[in-house]
Amino acid sequence: MKYCIIGGDARIREVARLLEADGDAVCAIGHGDALPRAENAQDADIVLLGLPTSRDHKTIYAPFGDETISYDTLLGLLNRKARVFCGMPDAALAARFRTAGILFTDYFEREELAVLNAIPTAEGALALAMEKLPIAMHHANCLVLGFGRIGKYLAHILKGMGAHVTVSARRASDMTWIEAYGYHATDTKNAKEVADKADVIFNTIPSLVIDAAFLDRVRPSVPIIDLASMPGGVDTAYAEKSGKTVLSAQSLPGKVAPKTAGEAIFRTIKNILQEDFHESTPCAQKRRE
Ligand code: NAP
Hints:
With about 290 residues, this protein is α/β, with parallel strands linked by helices. The protein has helices at about 10-20, 70-75, 90-100, 110-130, 150-160, 170-180, 210-215, 235-240, 250-255, 260-280, 280-289; strands at about 1-5, 25-30, 45-50, 85, 105, 140-145, 165-170, 185, 200-205, 225, 245-250.
């Protein structure tokens, strides 16, 4: 397969390395001389854009490039038959692809990528906690809000280090699993009641759960590590006013483990292509008839 990479950061460079190692041909726009340069993507089978695809909703995210690639420029570079893989394209770009009849897939929507990203996110959060805490994680009281992908993996590694782990959830089934794994369970809406015991608090819930009443129960020196996507889960104005220690930790996979994060994108794209291939076989077509 011939890939043309347009923009993207260190994670996409790792994808390029793995594609080449897998026998694929790779050229790139927006990577200087670090990858074989392309003038356009006309002869590419697959076009790969970064994560996120854009940061300003106008141009392609290409931090290593010297050129600005507007959405118009991008559309002009593409061969209409190419398959485009992009991470979190905004509505405007998605609409442009649809109008131009370009087949695109948002690889960030795939569950395996979310799970693979949860691992470096949890590790990055743990590193932050260790940097901020004056005590060892062993026997530290850790409160994890949310028992989704990140919450599950974070609780697992914290317990592995000998921490006392309390995890919050809102579903009875999750509360039962939390207990089954040997953590203390608390209903998210009651989590503030255990906040005063915590040496560190990790939030993974993308909703305002650490409100003023919660913050009033937290000791000022206790790091509150907010992992949820912006605007996060903390009343930051009240936290600042009341002198609490809030650390907003965004985009950790790309920051703490770009190679691992790149490998996760590579695996995800290969999975999608393999599924497409199986779906297009005569057997699969017959099954659908
Ligand atoms: P997830 O698997 O969807 O887990 C989210 C958890 O929050 C679940 O336990 C969910 O409960 C709970 N939750 C959601 N809305 C809630 C509400 N209104 N009240 C109470 N509980 C609620 O998500 P994830 O993959 O773990 O990611 C968590 C957050 O981190 C997301 O915002 C994600 O975008 C972000 N993220 C951050 C980084 C980083 O570097 N900081 C990296 C990747 C992802 P239910 O299961 O009951 O819905």
